[in-house]
Amino acid sequence: MAQTRRNQIVRGAVNPPRRGVRLVEQPAGQDETKRDRFIRLVEARMDKALMALDNLRKLADREYYDFSETDTREIDVTLRSEIDRLQESFKAGREIRGFKLRRE
To answer: Which listed site, 35, 88, 100, 104, has its alpha carbon 20 to 30 Å from 94?
Structure first.
């Protein structure tokens, strides 16, 4: 599924963008619903995230790069931590970040 989604970069385009081509989030129309806006934005941002992960995956080629197990663990921990934060944000309905006192 992720591979299929990644290859459908821009509104049904089958080929991924060429190197150096930037994905842009289309401006919202006047009659766009919150759901439509969410779908439009999440698709564009997921495409960017999947492309970034693909770029990281390319660094795993030991023929061209030197890295240690510590490096790979650090990458793994960081990515999993960010995925956890993402999931918590959706569960809470907002991003959990910062400090705020409750007003009485």
So the answer is: 104
